[in-house]
Design brief:
The complex is a heterodimer of chains A (about 475) and B (about 400).
Chain A: E1 3-10, E2 14-17, H1 18-25, E3 33-36, H2 43-56, E4 66-71, H3 82-88, E5 96-101, H4 106-116, E6 120-126, H5 134-138, E7 141-149, E8 155-164, E9 170-171, E10 180-181, H6 184-206, E11 213-220, H7 223-233, H8 255-266, E12 272-278, E13 281-289, H9 292-299, H10 306-311, H11 319-325, H12 344-349, H13 351-354, E14 358-361, E15 367-368, E16 385-388, E17 394-402, E18 412-419, E19 424-429, E20 442-453, E21 456-465
Chain B: E1 10-17, H1 28-43, E2 52-56, H2 65-71, E3 78-81, H3 87-100, E4 106-114, H4 139-144, H5 146-154, H6 158-176, H7 190-194, E5 198-200, E6 203-204, E7 213-222, H8 223-226, E8 234-243, H9 260-273, H10 278-281, E9 282-286, H11 292-301, H12 310-316, H13 332-336, H14 340-355, E10 376-385, E11 388-397
Parallel strand pairs in B: 2-3, 2-4, 9-10
Antiparallel strand pairs in B: 1-7, 1-8, 4-7, 5-6, 8-11, 10-11
Helix pairs in contact in B: 1-2, 3-14, 6-11, 6-12
The chains are: A alpha+beta (about 475), B alpha/beta (about 400).
Chain lengths: ~475, ~400
């Protein structure tokens, strides 16, 4: 049996209220909020965060054959974005890392590829549009990650169905910040006949009927077509699961992944989940949950469920800040030099530290961050073992709020943190209110894009407050 | 570890110091020419009399040519020295050793920095190519880490600590107001200091040292030659320079309320100088008040206050110009300004001035006269950040032991 053995969704901390957006532009406001990736996040870093959650649910010996990363908003072209995720997860060099880039449908490709080879599918997206447009308001940012395997499967892959058709509904020239859409009624017309074809194909392959479906997930950027789809599938509308339109917005490539994670958070064993994705055609995936899901749900940190992450978000992001973070508003920088670009050779030499957050531990147990070759106490050289710190929590020893340092979102909050079990590290805090930081606060590590210089993204780790959850 | 010192082996016979501040009309070359000329004139010698030179600058030039080119030095040894913000002190220390060794008769230690040409706020230091993981906080942010840690450890509440920091800035501005060479020659009210815009943590703009241009120089000879040039040489009693493993930022046992490097260099310097009770024996101290919490912590590290009590001593006025132990009588980095490479020599310039009774309106009462009981002064200069710094302490005196 092949299927999902673990999963994780990542919802960024910040929310933009649609009413805030509307009042800034003097337009009519829709209800609810959209999730917003922070200034120091991109699709790669969010993919790391979702994957870290997914990997908490697998055994330590699990090693995927490949990691497949899908997004419409890649950090790089030419260079494989999945490699930074691979490095941040400290996966073995023998594990492949591949990108599926550009279209919302590429998420399906990542899922297909991962399911075939006991691999990981990482779906991540940052969705916005021109100021005042529907995409800006109704889009959302987030990521989801799925580990496939054949043992301890929590959701078995039953079948897939597809229908592909070339038509102009939504498009974007590479480099442009916003996509364009044809008249909405045309897309509705084009998608309509494709839905039932794909859905019935999947049902037939799995020897099921529409009535067997317990949870149905309909996703796609064409809102009207998605809304009409359940009916043409003949599906019971009670099985429709939250599409998070009011609480997150549509996260494009990642969206059905986030919805699936939410379903898996609370589903019962032996339930059929139907995923129907409308993106340049229709793709259907049928899953059946197993008894193993129960144990998986029990061991999961309850602060990491989709609902818990939604609840933990902060709702007061200003529209000006949102525009600045997404590059639509260029603001006066501080009178300080811009940071240096991270250099290639040192970044390669220290990859275990920079991406994996490995320190070194000497014979006395003292942990060095970054890794050191020489012991502080004994002076012995190269008598160290490497230790991964990324998943260990820490306590703030002291901190400061730096109003002078260069940042895309000043002020910089810097802290000295002491890891549980040893190791001290000075780093930036993120997703934090400078006014509420205290000595003794608990923090956990988060993979971020610190800044971009000369076209090189500087990925590294920051600490963020531990907000909920205990495990 | 052996540290024998060179107590009473070398002496300063002349010093020069430019005004510190925004010298829009002066280059690094101009500042070097001005301070070196003043020091030579002060010692009553010419450039030809100087056998060797030690130039301290962190970022205003590379190599000995930075000095030999503008001064037109004719084929003599010029050493360029860099050791963060203690660069000027390091130039002085090595120059002293060269004389003590007998290698040269007359040497010059000179420091310079031209900070105001960069166009940036604060100090800008270019780093070697790296992996982008180094902490990017600014200098005020690094030093602001001391304030909450100190308050937390000693149970001082935030508002009270702010009063303490404000009083340090107020005192140094008050001293600087009496100093024609200072960058900020103006008293500033405590209200203005306390209300200044925040730069980092609790630190406002008035808690930070002045970013400035300037240069200072000293002429050094063997003690037995000193009286050929001046009746009132200043003798070098102790020189201590310490670099540590920079482990504070990685060691959970470091609590950000002290500079281990300062404690080590002060202990060494007091031993070299034969000082057992610095607070009672010293006439004055020039310390590295780059930011106000630094001066607070230094009072304890240098032995001027018991641990956890410096904040009370500050409020009591112990370190005021007319206090028990005047600290930074020339205004310190805070109001004299902090052109990196020049600062260590500027501190010595104030010792030179005070111990010779030449400080005018800010002359410390009972210091600098023939019958003065206290004849020793201390300079303390550090570079880096809490937990990872280099520290220098010197003791100089107007009498041979």
């Amino acid at each position: 049996m092949t299927g999902i053995i673990s999963y994780g969704a990542y919802i960024p901390y910040w929310r933009l209220q649609r009413s805030t957006l509307a009042s800034a532009l003097g337009s009519k406001g829709a209800k609810g909020v959209r999730a917003v990736a922070s200034f120091d996040e991109d699709t790669t870093s969010m993919g790391v965060e979702a994957s870290r959650i997914a990997l908490r649910g697998v055994s330590e010996t699990y090693s995927p054959q490949s990691l497949w990363f899908a997004t419409t908003e890649p950090g790089y072209l030419d260079k494989t974005n999945a490699n930074a995720i691979h490095a941040a997860l400290s996966l073995n060099t023998s594990v492949n890392a591949f990108d599926c880039l550009g279209s919302v449908r590429s998420g399906i490709a990542a899922m297909h590829a991962a399911a075939c080879g006991n691999s990981m599918a990482v779906l991540s997206d940052i969705r916005t549009g021109l100021p005042g447009g529907n995409d800006e308001s109704m889009g959302g940012d987030g990521a989801a990650s799925f580990c496939f395997g054949s043992e301890n499967v929590i959701a078995e892959l039953l079948s897939t169905g597809t229908s592909t058709s070339e038509f102009v509904d939504r498009w974007r020239i590479p480099g442009e910040k916003a996509s364009k859409q044809w008249e909405e009624r045309f897309g509705e017309y084009a998608y309509a006949p494709l839905v039932a074809v794909a859905f019935n194909e999947a049902l037939e392959k799995a020897n099921l009927t529409a009535a067997d479906v317990s949870h149905s997930i309909f996703s796609g950027l064409h809102t009207r077509a998605v809304k009409a789809a359940p009916q043409s599938c003949g599906i019971n509308l009670d099985t429709l699961r939250d599409d998070f339109a009011a609480t997150l917005g549509n996260s494009g490539t990642a969206h059905w992944g986030v919805m699936l994670a939410n379903v898996l958070d609370t589903a019962q064993p032996n339930e059929v989940i139907a995923i129907v994705v409308l993106a340049d055609g229709v793709n259907v995936i049928l899953l059946r949950t197993t008894e193993a899901l129960v144990a998986h749900q029990k061991q999961q940190d309850n602060s990491l469920t989709v609902q818990a992450q939604i609840a933990a978000g902060r709702n007061d992001l200003s529209y000006a800040q949102f525009l600045t973070w997404r590059g639509f508003l260029h603001r006066e920088p501080p009178r300080r030099p811009e940071p240096d670009r991270p250099a290639g050779p040192p970044s390669l030499r220290t990859a275990a530290w920079k991406y994996g957050l490995y320190g070194s531990r000497d014979e006395s147990g003292f942990i060095y961050l970054p890794p050191s070759r020489v012991s502080l106490q004994s002076g012995s050289i190269d008598n160290m073992e490497m230790v991964r710190m990324a998943d260990i929590r820490a306590t703030i020893a002291t901190y400061t709020v730096d109003h002078l340092a260069f940042s895309m979102s000043p002020p910089v909050v810097a802290a000295v943190i002491d890891f549980d079990g040893g190791g001290r590290f000075q780093c930036e805090l993120t997703d934090v209110d400078p006014a509420t930081v205290k000595i003794g606060d608990r923090v956990e590590m988060s993979f971020r894009r610190l800044y971009t210089q000369d076209g090189i993204h500087n990925y590294f780790w920051k600490a963020k407050p531990v907000r909920t959850g205990v495990k | 570890m052996a540290s024998h010192g060179i107590r009473d082996k070398v002496a300063i016979i002349g010093m020069g110091c430019t005004n510190f501040g925004e010298h829009w009309n002066k280059s690094t070359d101009d500042l070097l020419i001005d301070s070196s000329s003043a020091a030579l004139a002060n010692a009553g010698i010419t450039l030809d009399d100087v056998d060797a030179f030690w130039l301290g600058t962190m970022g205003s030039g590379l190599s000995g040519l930075t000095l030999s080119r503008p001064l037109k030095i004719q084929h003599k040894p010029v050493t360029h020295v860099e050791n963060y913000c203690a660069t000027g002190s390091e130039a002085f220390r090595n120059a002293c050793y060269a004389v003590a060794s007998g290698a040269y008769d007359i040497v010059m230690a000179i420091g310079v920095e031209k900070l105001k040409d960069s166009g940036y706020s604060g100090l800008v230091v270019s780093a070697p190519a790296g992996d982008g993981t180094q902490a990017t906080v600014t200098a005020p942010a690094s030093f602001s880490l001391l304030a909450p840690a100190y308050a937390y450890k000693y149970g001082v509440d935030e508002a009270e600590l702010k009063d303490v920091l404000t009083r340090i800035a107020w005192k140094n501005h008050r001293n600087g107001a009496l100093n024609s060479r200072a960058q900020f020659k103006k008293e500033v009210s405590k209200e203005t200091i306390a209300a200044s815009p925040l730069i980092a943590g609790q630190l406002g703009i008035f808690d930070c040292s002045g970013v400035s241009d300037g240069s200072a120089a000293a002429i050094i000879v063997r003690v037995e030659d000193a009286h050929k040039y001046t009746d009132r040489p200043i003798y070098v009693k102790a020189l201590s320079f310490v670099a540590g493993p920079a482990a504070g930022p990685i060691d959970p046992s470091y609590d950000y309320t002290t500079f281990d490097e300062v404690v080590h260099s002060a202990t060494d310097a007091y031993k070299q100088a034969g000082i057992t009770d610095p607070r009672a024996e010293l006439a004055m101290a020039e310390v590295h008040d780059c930011f106000t919490p630094t001066e607070l912590v230094l009072m304890e590290d240098l032995g001027f206050a018991e641990r956890g009590t410096a904040w009370k001593e500050v409020l009591a006025g112990t370190y005021d110009l007319d206090g028990e132990l005047p600290v930074n009588p020339d205004g310190g980095l805070k109001s004299f300004g902090h052109p990196i490479g020049a600062s260590g020599l500027r501190m010595l310039f104030e010792c030179w001035t005070q111990l010779r009774g030449e400080a005018g309106a800010r002359q410390i009462p009972g210091v600098g006269q023939k019958d003065s009981l206290k004849t020793k002064a201390l300079t303390h200069n550090l570079g880096g950040a809490p937990g990872a710094c280099v520290s220098f302490v010197s003791v100089v005196g107007s009498k041979l032991d």
